[in-house]
Amino acid sequence: MMKTNLERRHFLRGAGALIALPTLESIGFRRFASAASTAPAAPATPAKRCVFLSIGFGVTKETWFPDIHQTGADYELSEGLAPLARHKSDITVVQGCANQYTNEAHWGSTFWLTGANRYSVPGQNMANSISADQVVAGHLGQDTRFSSIQLNAASLEGHGPGLSLAWDGRGKPVAGQDDPVQVFHKLFSPDDMPLKQRQAAIAENRSVLDAVLTQARRVQRGLSRTDTDKLDEYFQGIRDIETRLKKDEAWIDVPKAGAPLDEPDPGLKGKAEIEIMQDLIVAALQTDSTRVLSYRMPGQSLLQSLDLKPSAHNVSHYSPGDRMEASKVRDKAH
């Protein structure tokens, strides 16, 4: 009887919308299964903020890290960190950390903020867990318009699987934005849709979720343990959407901050792209639009903009000579 009820329920319907169910072995997929509510008041003390920046294929080991034997505030900055000299008193360098559970050399960003065991799920080639930025966003993002913002590079050499540095509580990738113009508008451009229409859209989305959750709970009866776990994960995804809807509702009549910088020129690449993205990061923090950001920075386009001939991949396989010099220039440019 259960099979008959579920055969055509691979999608859940609600208020005219369709939301796909996860792949459940109980409904014919067994063979695949194995293969903050208000605008923030001015804080009495400076708000805590967190930014994560990632370089595809890593850095030049010999010139990036300070001498590990020099501890305390009087250590000598390395060649790679020399551009940060005027901020030295504000910097703590942590080194010697490694993730022993992944050995994929070209996936430097995939597990960087999660520290996850790639093989933690039996029979699955890759598993991940929540990233540090999303954990932080759960604490620092309650009082800002955007709980966190993820920035990306259009070319992702050396970063590995994922849509940004961020992974949610289910170990699923969180999408990032790679266009500085779109990031600018997300942060500072007013919404074109009238307030009442935005309110109606949020109400409609909430009614869709309510209807979908009602049907999903009916589907849950009689499922196998494996499918129950999958559906629990699915429910978490729905709850995440509900959280975003609540955030949208709380900020719906709060104007966005005024932009402290001009709209970026379209089509920026390489060094110019990185610089404007970093300017947008600073602007987002200055206006308290968010307190948590991450950025997977480009590699190949950066080298091209610096007139360096080796590819981003080849630079990572440096030896004394042109590749190593290109790697060192790349480090400082980031």
TrEMBL record:
<feature type="region of interest" description="Disordered">
    <location>
        <begin position="311"/>
        <end position="334"/>
    </location>
</feature>
<protein>
    <submittedName>
        <fullName>Protein containing DUF1552</fullName>
    </submittedName>
</protein>
<dbReference type="InterPro" id="IPR011447">
    <property type="entry name" value="DUF1552"/>
</dbReference>
<dbReference type="InterPro" id="IPR006311">
    <property type="entry name" value="TAT_signal"/>
</dbReference>
<feature type="compositionally biased region" description="Basic and acidic residues">
    <location>
        <begin position="320"/>
        <end position="334"/>
    </location>
</feature>
<dbReference type="Pfam" id="PF07586">
    <property type="entry name" value="HXXSHH"/>
</dbReference>
